[in-house]
């Protein structure tokens, strides 16, 4: 089996006999003994568990010191800890553009002693990269010295600063043991060159020969490449020029200046995205083949459902599962699916924009397997002339119900195969019968309750007035079924500060009536009739109320608020009306009034970077946890709009929205003239979203593996039922699978996700998604089928779940270690055996290191007192419900050069890498990550562009306070606004625009998003991190 890879040779590399990975360790994936570990614990991958043979961690706590992995090792007097011996971050910017000096250090483990640090540092700084084959993923050099690009090109290696001629068999003393390198890994042996791009040993005493030209046969001293999985396909290779015995570099005179490893020489996410777009963009992707790898989330294509669910609904970390659990443990690639059951489907892909094909079997209900209860789907095999069928999941043979019988054709397929969605499509819906309803009765349509904090500050800053005005507009747009004239959703209104105010807005009233509940300890609903109403019928009374609310509380001086009783009141109202629903809460302060769920300010920076830091992510009181469980039990989802001006304990307030399938929106230091548009866009989008209520999800699998872990806005009362008060089109649930037996290459691995839910019109339905994956006993197939974007989604969620229970330092170590483990296993088992100590990246994982580094530098995993605790809790919660497309953009933002716009074209300008080296003084760049949008302006931006976009004559005249671009009627302005609209339209959160001028203070915030550079608050650059991972791999292989 041929395997394409990205190859990177280390300094002085020469294969040693017997190099290999230590025996597979039970890691995060696949160890049965770990399945019962506490919820959210991140299990160490490989050597970070119990120390086994070849493990790198000695028992007992390590001495504090700079070698520890993390941003905050003990500082030597006056010296920041040097955690990484690689080259300093590359800075190709003009010298006039002074870089900021981040106060923090690299977050990579320093796994060498000081003596070998200097040596390895000089070796690594000599790295350069040759790129072989068109899919090498190396970006075209736009800055810095380009590396050689032809297959046969070979640059004479410069002389290293301290030449050491290592003859075959000579020894270099291993560095003394440190926390991360165990008893002592030997440093890297000397590098040899081979024209096929793989470092390998020449025969003893071989002299350097120039590589043969293409088409020439290899001369003596170049043994043919042998790979244990077939010939290696073209891939890019990192080569480290350093001397080898008898090479011209060793003979040379004074040392030559060295080339630093720079961004252009390591895999570029932008190149990978562009390559996929070029090969698969705009095409039809049919889902008729089991285990095929879909286009990347960043590629626009038309998906045709032909028996497997669209990748819009399900994406997997790999589309080929290993046949055995031993293989899974060996590779340590998590086996997971990211499921977005209500994903929006473009209108050109399906019959109706919102809904899937609907199957209605009347009172008989869906046809299901008697044993495992899987629903009828394309994986069922009809036999005995159509009278029976064999379940694809458990192999049980079932009788076909008489009403469902149909004859088979000459290939054993039913004659009505293409007329039945459940036989020919991967995704469809069933109308559910009474058996699937609560208390065996059909549900009522859901209700929306709007709950407004009317404390003093919200009245004074105009927020209450803004909300009330906007509600008049958005209530016209309540979601409805396609065929319906009006929405079936009923609405209700509550205001609150220290007490709760319920409003009667019955259609026959001339004026709304207010009822006050002062007993917030035992909340009850003071009225039933007239609280939840049809908006169309009560429109005039509702508008009357919304006009009166701001004036009603204009003289209130009450600044204390309650929070838990507000949710309790909404839930009780839905319970009394016997319907599911959603609470929209508009809140702005820490709830300090005497009531259940009262919170105190516990924002303690002294806990940062200690083992107690996890407390900051946990709710302060268990009131919110039990409240969330009650809400889910009654189908009550909570969406929270937060407007904090100081600490509000997002970890506590956000818990109910997270566990009930709601959404948390946060507008820190809300200013009416700057932030209202972002808030109003979010409110409109949230109300209009496609959503299902009172949902239960079950993931079934074929024999041999099962779903073991679930991440998302979910609650689980047992090991199989995923309960959600609501689920909308932006929410994803990530599911991890483990083996419980062998899988077969013939039958593959089958997944069926079934979501039982109530529609916006009150109909009970089942939404079914089916996906078939391949299985293989070859590790190469597993690596070839990986999807990095889905892997990062999984790693982020498992890490962010673990922060509740484990020290961040341990979590970061596990992530680095597992990255190294996955790549080392590939290197050992799937790459050419002669390439002893090369960093070889599988083609499908070329950008895993850069994405993993982005995750490690996210503020949730960075222990830095400069970052607000609330912001960290907010981002943690956001990521837990993200789909793959959203997490991809969130961790690796999009950076577009606006100054290269072609005003005649409707396509977006080609993105550039997220690094300061890509910015230019004469450029204008747009950066977006799904939460924020920045327009960065270089000091020498073209005046005609500035005039065209801002309608002002020069750079100095631009007002950086604006959050919306002015409507200037010219092509530049229209094109830029269209591009911003395209980027925004696919995203769940409205991105507020920030204008940033080069060399002005706000640029610091913008720089945090240049994720390939060294982190502003710590964390290594991409270049440093790839070197760090390379060292970890070398240790594993040694």
UniProtKB/TrEMBL annotation:
Single GO biological process annotation from the record: in utero embryonic development
Iron-sulfur is among the record's keywords: no
Region feature Disordered, mapped onto this chain: 1-260
Domain of life per record: Eukaryota
Subcellular location: Cytoplasm, Cytosol; Cytoplasmic vesicle, COPII-coated vesicle membrane; Endoplasmic reticulum membrane
Stretches with biased composition (Low complexity): 44-55
Domain (Sec23/Sec24 trunk): residue spans on this chain: 443-686
CDD domains: Sec24-like (cd01479)
Compositional bias segments (type: Pro residues): 200-213
A Pfam family per the record: Gelsolin
One example GO MF annotation: zinc ion binding
Residue stretches of biased makeup (Polar residues): 102-134
Name recorded for this polypeptide: SEC24 homolog D, COPII coat complex component
Protein source organism: Aotus nancymaae
Taxonomic placement: Eukaryota, Metazoa, Chordata, Craniata, Vertebrata
Chain's gene name: SEC24D
């Amino acid at each position: 089996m041929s395997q394409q890879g990205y190859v990177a040779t280390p300094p002085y590399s020469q294969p040693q006999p017997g190099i290999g990975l230590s025996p597979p360790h039970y890691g995060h994936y696949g160890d049965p003994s770990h399945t019962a570990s506490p919820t959210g614990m991140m299990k160490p991958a490989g050597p970070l568990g119990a120390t086994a043979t070849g493990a790198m961690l000695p028992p007992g706590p390590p001495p504090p010191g700079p070698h520890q992995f993390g941003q905050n090792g003990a500082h030597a007097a006056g010296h920041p800890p040097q955690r990484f011996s690689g080259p300093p971050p590359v800075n190709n910017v003009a010298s006039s553009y002074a870089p900021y000096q981040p106060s923090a250090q690299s977050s990579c483990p320093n796994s060498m002693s000081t003596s070998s640090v200097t040596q390895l540092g000089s070796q690594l700084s000599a790295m350069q990269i040759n790129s072989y084959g068109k899919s090498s993923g190396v970006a075209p050099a736009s800055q810095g010295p380009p590396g050689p690009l032809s297959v046969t090109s070979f640059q004479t290696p410069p002389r290293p600063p301290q030449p050491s001629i290592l003859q075959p068999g000579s020894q270099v003393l291993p560095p003394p043991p440190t926390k991360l390198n165990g008893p002592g890994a030997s440093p890297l042996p000397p590098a040899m060159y081979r024209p096929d791009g793989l470092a390998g040993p020449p025969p003893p005493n071989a002299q350097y020969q120039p590589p043969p030209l293409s088409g020439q046969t290899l001369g003596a001293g170049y043994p043919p490449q042998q790979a244990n999985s077939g010939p290696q396909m073209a891939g890019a290779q990192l080569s480290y020029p350093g001397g080898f015995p008898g090479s011209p570099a060793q003979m040379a005179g004074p040392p030559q200046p060295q080339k630093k490893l720079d961004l252009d020489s390591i895999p570029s996410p932008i190149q990978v995205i562009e390559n996929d777009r070029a090969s698969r963009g705009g095409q039809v992707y049919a889902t008729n083949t089991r285990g095929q790898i879909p286009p990347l989330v960043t590629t626009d294509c038309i998906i045709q459902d032909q028996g497997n669910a669209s990748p819009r609904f399900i994406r997997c970390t790999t589309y080929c599962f290993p046949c055995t659990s031993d293989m899974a443990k060996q590779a340590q690639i998590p086996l997971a699916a990211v499921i977005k059951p209500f994903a929006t489907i473009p209108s050109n892909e399906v019959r109706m924009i919102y809904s899937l094909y609907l199957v209605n079997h009347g009172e008989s209900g869906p046809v299901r397997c008697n044993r495992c209860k899987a629903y009828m789907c394309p994986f069922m095999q009809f036999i005995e002339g159509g009278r029976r069928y064999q379940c694809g999941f458990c192999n049980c043979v079932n009788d076909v119900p008489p009403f469902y019988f149909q004859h088979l054709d000459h290939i054993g397929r039913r004659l009505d195969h293409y007329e039945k969605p459940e036989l020919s499509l991967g995704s469809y819906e069933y109308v559910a019968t009474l058996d699937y309803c609560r208390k065996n009765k059909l549900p009522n349509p859901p209700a929306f309750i709007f709950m407004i904090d009317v404390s003093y500050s919200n009245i004074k800053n105009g927020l209450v007035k803004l909300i009330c005005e906007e509600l008049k507009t958005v209530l016209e747009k309540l979601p409805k079924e396609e065929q319906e004239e009006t929405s079936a959703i009923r609405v209700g209104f509550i205001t609150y500060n220290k007490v709760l105010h319920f409003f009667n807005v019955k259609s026959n009233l001339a004026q709304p009536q207010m009822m006050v509940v002062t007993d917030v300890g035992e909340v009850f609903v003071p009225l039933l009739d007239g609280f939840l109403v049809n908006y169309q019928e009560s429109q005039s009374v509702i508008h009357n109320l919304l006009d009166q609310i701001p004036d009603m509380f204009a003289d209130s001086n009450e600044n204390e608020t309650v929070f838990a009783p507000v949710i309790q009141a909404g839930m009780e109202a839905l319970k009394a009306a016997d319907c599911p629903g959603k609470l929209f809460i508009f809140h702005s302060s820490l709830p300090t009034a005497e009531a259940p769920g009262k919170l105190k300010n516990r924002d303690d920076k002294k806990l940062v970077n200690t083992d107690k830091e996890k407390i900051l992510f946990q709710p302060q009181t268990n009131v919110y946890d039990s409240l969330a469980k009650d809400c889910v039990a009654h189908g009550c989802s909570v969406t929270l709009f937060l407007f904090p001006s100081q600490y509000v304990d997002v970890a506590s307030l956000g818990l109910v929205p997270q566990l009930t399938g709601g959404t948390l929106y946060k507008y820190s230091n809300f200013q009416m003239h700057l932030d209202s548009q972002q808030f109003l866009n979010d409110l409109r989008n949230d109300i209009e979203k496609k959503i299902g209520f009172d949902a239960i999800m079950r993931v079934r699998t074929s024999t041999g593996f099962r779903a073991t872990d679930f991440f998302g806005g979910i609650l689980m009362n047992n090991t199989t039922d995923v309960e959600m008060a609501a689920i909308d089109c932006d929410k994803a649930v990530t599911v991890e699978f483990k083996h419980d037996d062998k899988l077969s290459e013939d039958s593959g691995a089958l997944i069926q996700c079934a979501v039982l839910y109530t529609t916006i019109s009150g109909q009970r339905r089942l939404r079914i998604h089916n996906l078939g994956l391949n299985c293989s006993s070859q590790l190469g197939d597993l690596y070839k089928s990986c999807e990095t974007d889905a892997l990062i989604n999984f790693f982020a969620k498992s890490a962010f779940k673990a922060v509740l229970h484990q020290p961040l330092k341990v979590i970061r170590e596990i992530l680095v270690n597992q990255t190294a483990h996955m790549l080392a296993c590939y290197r050992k088992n799937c790459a050419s055996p002669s390439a002893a100590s090369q960093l070889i990246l599988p083609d499908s994982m070329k950008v895993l290191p850069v994405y993993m580094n982005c995750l490690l530098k996210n503020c949730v995993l960075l222990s830095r007192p400069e970052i607000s605790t609330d912001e960290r809790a907010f981002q943690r919660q956001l990521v837990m419900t993200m789909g793959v497309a959203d997490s991809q953009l969130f961790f690796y933002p999009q950076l577009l050069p606006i100054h290269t716009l072609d005003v005649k074209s409707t396509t977006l300008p080609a993105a550039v890498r997220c690094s300061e080296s890509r910015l230019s003084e004469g450029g204008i760049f747009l950066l977006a990550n799904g939460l924020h949008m920045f327009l960065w302006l270089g000091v020498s931006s073209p005046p005609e562009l500035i005039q065209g976009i801002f309608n002002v004559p020069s750079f100095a005249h631009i007002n950086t306070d604006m959050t919306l671009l002015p409507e200037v009627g010219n092509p530049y302005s229209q094109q830029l606004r269209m591009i911003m609209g395209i980027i925004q339209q696919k995203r769940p959160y409205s991105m507020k625009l920030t204008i940033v001028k080069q060399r002005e203070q706000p640029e610091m915030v913008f720089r945090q998003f240049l994720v390939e550079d060294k982190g502003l608050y710590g964390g290594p650059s991409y270049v440093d991190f790839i070197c760090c991972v390379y060292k970890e791999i070398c240790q594993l292989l040694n």
